[in-house]
# Entry
Amino acid sequence: MNTHIVGVEISAFLDGALAVEDRARVDAHVSACPQCRAELESLRHLKLALSSAPRRNMPADLALELERRLVTGARWWTPLARPAFWIPAGAVASAALAVGLWLRASAPGEEIPLEPLLAAHSRYSAEALVPEENSVAANYSAQMTSLYADASDSEAE
Amino acid sequence: MDAQTFAGLIARAGDKAYNFAYRLAGNESDARDLVQEAFTRALEHAESYDPTRPFDSWLLRILHNVFLDAMRRHSHSRTLSLDAPAPTQESGWSDLLPEDAESASDELIRRESLDLLQKALKRLPLLYKSAVVLCDIEGLSYEEIAKVTAVPVGTVRSRIHQGRLLLRRAYEELEKSGGRVS
Amino acid sequence: MPTPRTARPSKALLAALLAAGVRAGAERLPEPSALLDAALAPPAVPYQGRVMVAQWYGRARTGELMTSAEEMVVHVSPPDRVRREFLAPDDSVARVSISDGDQESVLLIRSGKTVLGNALRADDKVLPAMLERETLMSNYDLSVSSGETVAGRPVWRLTLAPKVDGKSWQTLWVDAETKVVLGSKRWQPKRPFASEARFLSFEPRKVQDPELFRVDDSTAGAIQARGLAPEFLTLDQLRERTGAASRLPDSLPGGFVFESADLFMVRKSPIRHARYTDGLSVLSVFETDRPVSLPKSASIPAGREPLPGPLRASLSGKVLQWKIGARHYTMMGDVSRDLMAEIAKALP
# Structure
């Protein structure tokens, strides 16, 4: 045998992901070629070991926690939304209210506020290869302040 | 789709999501964080889920993205880019396997509970790991894996194969060293 | 020798390499790209200092320069822990941002509110570091000079000059001893836009108190700002997620390449955020199905190139807004108005 099966094809063969004609060709080659057969068996062994690894089910307490979140809707808010539409963490909102807020859209013709876009761009600037770390951090944290602060934070003397 | 139905879909896919998260992350604590984060993102993007498409793939895709983001944040301790091209010679493979960062005492505890295969899996660069886990543990087709990892099927093919070769080598190294970190 | 894949080689190694290149007693300058790598690597030593940040962001309607200034006290502990105390004009602390490398918090002093999110990390890149560096080198000329001091310490001055008109220049003043960036300035020739950060005092330390960097995520009422955790999508992924044939291209005039995209909602309107970089300067292009409100500053008049829509200044850069059919575009960046107009034309 001069040419062996390309590695990628052996894996694809194992996974049943080869086209019919290719499958036949690989099958024929493998029957006649000990090296390729050995490789196929080795990978099959590996695949079997992985697929018979015990499945991990979600820990019960995690499942409960996630279910609780679904019910109370404590996290059902839109990122970078203005504070008026934000539900404080830990507050229990009724399911109906949560769904209502989730579905609430802007009034027709209402503009999208610019601030969340500015913050997103600012954050991107902070990740630039040559960050002006301190300048950008100043802007970025100021924008976080304006998004989440209430009147008392920005009161000047 | 109403909130109730969506909640039901999420609940049923929970175990599958956790299993995938566990295989990617390699330990329970990180898997829990991954699932929490993915869950939050799924809720936030609920409106973008198309009910005519399989829910599991959609959720696994979110989980995969969350995992990639988390890995980027922690990648300062790794000497590897996420998508390292395959080396052309066998000797290049060793470049792709990062040193295990566990300390000796962690190792003693873990050796009891973790099997060698999971440890070998942990050493895979993450894009190879995702492909192998989705193929061999979750049993997804190449097309489905392409959807979850958002790459072409050809890339899925090569990642699965290279992932297996790396996994096999990592496993053999671990066996040789008696499961001890070299 | 294996190909280095580290995005950020250690400062200690680079400092050694640089030192080897600088003979004792000779005025030999470090090689510019090596100095850049050393400056961008994570810090080798803990340090603290006081920093002044200033910005010039255009002219008011009346013609005067608009400026802002802020001082902060910074504590840094390698590799990625940072604490910044932003000072009010009377030197009291107005807000504190802490990053422990994993999480970040911004504590608003007056209200006691804490905003939490994932840490800003320069390692959160989609574009592999080597490609980004190549992009930078193809778009900028680097040069080094010596003889200056910042915060009383000798520094190298590293200049990055754009090869294309209409882009900002960048200068970094790099501490000769620790390779920390003690000063940085970005400016545009002949334009009233610049930003600068400079250490007024700088002190390397043996250790930093870890308590300084503790992100307290347990306070009741702490706000989880999910908006601080964006996604990094490819253009294909973005199109898939939105089910729309997005018209965002993978490169823009001026040497900008697509880096990653994010998709988020504001008041149930999806915002498609495409991020472009030329290695140094970054551009954001937001694509929306509804109009975005305008910045509150004055309009900037067009230069040589006609503008497709209003152009205004903001602290995050210039903001250009226009509409094509039913799609609305909002572009942010710190390039010249002519370059912005040219780039806007390239968006189909």
